[in-house]
Amino acid sequence: MAPAVCGMLLGLTLYTGHLCAVSAAAAFLYHDYCVIGAGPSGLQAAYFLQRAGRDYVIFERSHAPGSFFALYPRHRKLISINKRYTGKSNSEFNLRHDWNSLLSHDRRLLFRRYSRDFFPDADAMVRYLEDFASLLKLRVQYNTAIVHVMLEKDRQAWNGHYFLLTDQDRQNYKCSSLLVATGTWVPNVVNFPGSEYVEGYETVSINPEDFAGQTVLILGRGNSAFETAENILGVTNFIHMVSRSRVRLSWATHYVGDLRAINNGLLDTYQLKSLDGLLEGDLEDLAIVKDKKGKLHITLRFYLENRNTSGGIDSITLPQDELDNFATRAPYDRVIRCLGWKFDFSIYNRSLRMMPGKGNKKKYPQIKPSYESRGTRGLFVLGTASHSVDFRKSAGGFIHGFRYTTRAVHRLLENRHHGVPWPSTVYPITQLTNSIIKRVNEASGLYQMFSVLADIILLRENATAFEYLEEYPVGVLAELEMQTGRKAPSGLFVIIMEYGRNFSGADKDVFYYNRAVGEAQHAWQSNFLHPVIYFYKHLPTEREMRLQHPDWPLPRPDAVHHIVEDFLTDWTAPNAHILPLRRFLENCLSTDLRNFFAESCFLFAFTHQKLPPFCQQGYMRLQGLVGSEGLRRHAVEAGLTPDKHEGSQDRLLRDHMIPVRPLQHLVNAKDEL
Predict the structure, then answer these.
(1) Where does the signal sequence lie (predicted)?
(2) Alpha-carbon span 101 to 550, nearest angstrom
């Protein structure tokens, strides 16, 4: 009996162990890609994953997408422009001036169909995001708050580990790649003595009548602070605003996150001496004390260090006791905190090494220029939380910027995990000038993510053709071959948009006389946004990228060309824009990129050792335009060719002596000569 009993016990043990293993495996719901957050960047990422046929899921803690916009901005007016008319029908160009639409193939999902306002109401954004998720049938799991994320090492996983996620109901999920699109939603709070008397932007009343006849102090100097002030400007006694930094106007810094004109009414009342005012000071040095009447007095922290705590407010030294004209000596009825938001690091286990940035980027997680976490491979940060890559430089923290960086991340993932190279198009070298001119005049990704995303032109051997890649992150240019699956053996051009080097800044006068450059020979001094073309004989190295000047988007090139700024942002002028660009490209490639009529190619074939590429790839292959009297007359009238009636070429044309002969016949004839 003993052996039988032992056998039964052993079998029971093995069966129980099997059940536990099955239960453990079932406890983790697996997806290749997990996206946390169904805000704009999360939905944008889901759109690209779905179009590629990938296994993904979005976890959203709310019952609907875009929950941030259901509450913010508190006063419901967005500062992202909704320009419905541009005078052009090119949809790619129009996205340059549509700051709210996400990228999709569905024309119904353009934001101009949801609002007619130039600065739309936030409720329109909520409706838009709901439709974006539902019409495209994106896989969003609502009412699912991810409360913990950790790693599980596994050599078989894509990145050497899996991401294990747990929601509020203790349901577990396993993912190979994690896309964090939660934005920055945790309010920034400064703790100082008396901070318990401060109201937060997230809860303060938005009814102006609640502030009638009151004196208000606002902590902060961003758009939320000025938005709050704008709402109550007409009913308060006066408003003071204090922050450690000076006001930064977006039209001076060219950064859309700085103060926008729609919210800057307080600047008028301050400078026109209508009681309101701005002050600079470190908030951590402040202290607030409340008197018996409920009034709030501003003092300094060090005055409280040795005070008699039993003596009440009368024992506290106030700055005006020593300086009788102290700026904030008048008591306040309310103090409002408007200090913005920061990233929520609390849900990430230490194994992920999600660390905050440094300095003014500490509200964002540390990520690489590829938007991948510096601490964990396979974890990408999207949307507003990824703004550390271009903070105060470009538009990566806003919809009209991160819709393109999200697409770039998707393309990186497609190449890394699925062997799908970065999309590209191959053209003959004769189309080089046209390709660049077309992109700089209509591309919205280059325009919005200036100095961050660039078009890359990879030259083929002998520069007879080129491969065109759109909107690649320049911060990982040295990794281009690995990140895109494309080769760059023969040099490359990088096309990027830039402002002038010394034109942007809080202290800059951007309206000074002669601020614009109009002549092509001075294009390098252009101030406003304009295209810049960098030429490299070899792909820059990692070391060159690390050692580049901090104010430069790229390392020193072998050659560089600025296309002169244009008041209409229309870079199609033959003499000011196209001709200098073509000459620059010709110098870099040591070739002639002009287009020719057939008779010119015919003459070149007999008088030159090397034909221009247009003749090699066109006329010598029986392609191109055959000359005629009508074409000659049109060229003369347009000023494209001189009217030389006695020239040999015109005489041949007039006498109809220009034959179109097969390539082999031309070669034989040239050999005979």
Answers:
(1) 1-20
(2) 32
